[in-house]
């Protein structure tokens, strides 16, 4: 015979089990909904950015590529196939622009090494590093038009730089009038004016570098070149990849202001770059279809060069 209190306890336990069982089943029904929500949440958050990129970047790019297969002038809006691209490859100005792109690729390691070394000196706290950090970044805030005007005065044939060279017995150099020198002069000015941004990126990369590795290298008696080659470069491989790609893109797409002010594409078209050629064909010659073809070629140049740089840097990082 079961006592009343035992029966009460048994009934209460049974009710508790039923309640828990119902809660478990309800929780199991809610769990898939929660997982489904968590699975779609990243896509919802990323959707606005993707929509903006597709609307303002990819769609205009596709329109430009489509427009490059049409004609100019009397053939405006008429499909001409690859005629614009054939004309580009036969144009001496565009051929010179492509050669200058190759020159930029060769000079790219210099453009990356300068801010990298300066950031290294600042990170190692050389005397006056706080002042140097401000001074190095100052050119990055100047307008390309102002920078070009300043260096037009400095690099003029009768300017102060040639005056110093004359006093040293080296003779004057026609920095902006010699076809073999002008492009190097403009690229040098561009590197001076923009390396401050790469410097900031390198300093941010140094914040992720393990300081114990530097201490161990010092204890082992490593010299500064050995520390840079065996510790800093491997530790900043990701940062170096980023700076390589962004610097190359900047050289291909951000030198118009300097070119326009310093040389206007001259002398003899020796300082043409694809972006300056695009402006010339669109703004001066009123040939938007040909300019669209040149823009498409510039896009693929940046894509190929960027992917090649990342592949080479990743391979060298794995070998290290």
TrEMBL record:
Residues 1-32 are annotated as: Disordered. It is found in: Cell membrane. It holds the Pfam family BPD_transp_1. Residues 98-309 form the ABC transmembrane type-1 domain. PANTHER family: ABC TRANSPORTER PERMEASE PROTEIN, INNER MEMBRANE ABC TRANSPORTER PERMEASE PROTEIN YCJO. This is Sugar ABC transporter permease. The chain crosses the membrane at residues 40-59, 101-124, 136-157, 181-209, 242-262, 289-308. The lineage of its organism: Bacteria, Bacillati, Actinomycetota, Actinomycetes, Streptosporangiales. The keyword Repressor does not apply. Keywords: Cell membrane, Membrane, Transmembrane, Transmembrane helix, Transport. Belongs to the binding-protein-dependent transport system permease family. It is a multi-pass membrane protein.
């Amino acid at each position: 015979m079961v006592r009343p209190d035992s029966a009460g306890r048994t009934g209460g336990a049974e009710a508790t089990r039923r309640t828990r069982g119902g809660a478990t089943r309800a929780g199991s029904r809610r769990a898939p909904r929660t997982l489904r929500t968590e699975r779609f949440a990243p896509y919802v958050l990323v959707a606005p950015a993707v929509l903006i990129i597709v609307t303002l970047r990819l769609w205009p790019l596709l329109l430009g590529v489509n427009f490059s297969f049409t004609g100019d002038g009397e053939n405006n809006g008429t499909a001409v196939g690859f005629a614009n691209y054939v004309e580009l490859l036969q144009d001496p100005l565009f051929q010179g622009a492509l050669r200058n792109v190759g020159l930029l690729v060769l000079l790219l390691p210099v453009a990356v090494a300068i801010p990298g070394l300066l950031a290294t000196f600042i990170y190692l706290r050389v005397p006056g590093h706080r002042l140097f950090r401000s001074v190095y970044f100052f050119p990055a805030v100047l307008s390309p038009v102002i920078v070009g005007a300043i260096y037009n005065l400095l690099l003029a044939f009768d300017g102060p730089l040639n005056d110093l060279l004359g006093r040293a017995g080296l003779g004057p150099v026609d920095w902006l009038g010699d076809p073999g020198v002008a492009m190097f002069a403009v690229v040098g000015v561009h590197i001076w004016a923009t390396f401050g941004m790469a410097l900031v990126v390198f300093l941010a990369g140094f914040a992720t570098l393990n300081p114990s590795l530097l201490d161990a290298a010092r204890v082992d008696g490593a010299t500064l070149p050995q520390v840079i080659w065996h510790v800093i470069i491997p530790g900043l491989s990701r940062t170096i990849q980023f700076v390589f790609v962004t610097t190359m893109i900047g050289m291909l797409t951000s030198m118009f202001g300097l070119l326009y002010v310093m040389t206007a594409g001259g002398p003899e078209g020796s300082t043409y770059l694809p972006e300056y050629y695009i402006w010339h064909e669109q703004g001066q010659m009123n040939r938007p279809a040909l300019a669209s073809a040149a823009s498409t070629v510039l896009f693929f140049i940046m894509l190929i060069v960027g992917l090649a740089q990342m592949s080479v840097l990743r391979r060298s990082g794995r070998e290290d």
